[in-house]
Amino acid sequence: MSRLFPHPGLTALLVAMWIVMVGEVSFGALFLGLVVGIIVPIFTAPWWPGRPKLRFLPALAYLGVVLWDIVVANFQVAAIILFRRNRDLRPAWLTIPLELTSPEAITVFAGTISLTPGTVSADVSACGKYLLVHALHAPDPASEIAKVKARYEARLKEIFA
Amino acid sequence: MSGGTSFAEMLVAALIVLGGSFALVGSWGLVRLPSLMERLHGPTKASTLGLGAILVASIAWFHLVRGTWTTHELLVSVFLFMTAPISANMIAKVHLHRLRQGEPSEPAGPAGAPAPPPGGADWATHEAPHEGTPGDFEGD
Fold first, then answer.
1. Model-level pTM?
2. pLDDT value at position B137?
3. Looking at the domain assignment, is residue B90 inside a domain?
4. ipTM of the shown complex
């Protein structure tokens, strides 16, 4: 069973994506989706050694928080672009110390930072302990770092526990 | 629907105007922000909601006017959320690299060049991942 489904979560995701792509729930769609969902995990297995366990409910709550923040971020960035003069803009590089250790968790953290209020993640340190983030407008970099860590990293630590 | 405009059409029109406005603001950000790293913020965010509103308009139109459900918009947003941070990250890394090389065509923005992280290591753009870190693959 585990030879056929080495990664049941990925199989379920691929089947769901396939059905969404076809646009209808039918036997044919489900069958082809299952074929893709079985073949892809088997052939991509070398690229995900040691996959992490996810907690589902905190992950769902995290998705809600991030989607809401993306909407808020859009209005904030739009306001900065429209109304703030360049000489009043305070862009800054933030060095965020990471408590997350798994590559998947750090990737999700970096992706979230890129999608939410006025921050883009630029790089990770070679030792894997710091994230380099560019902030569009951060008059107080320390409080910005604390906010990101409390809002996203704390939640991610629960998800990837 | 003789002459009058239905509620569905007004809703779809409002969503398209909202989406178009955000896309426009994002593009205006590309024009007026001071340097590359600031300009990167426009397309990763202001256009996300712009596209989102247009996708919701598309779903609403197919459902309210045509009476069918479409799910492709969901896929578009999933792929957008996966690819936008990655392309922004790649552009940022190229910028860091060329900044360190001192290329004259790549001036530092108002934030200056980033300081190296504490503890002796450098950013991964300039230094190979250390042993035991996630980026340290066997055979590298």
1. 0.83
2. 56
3. yes
4. 0.80
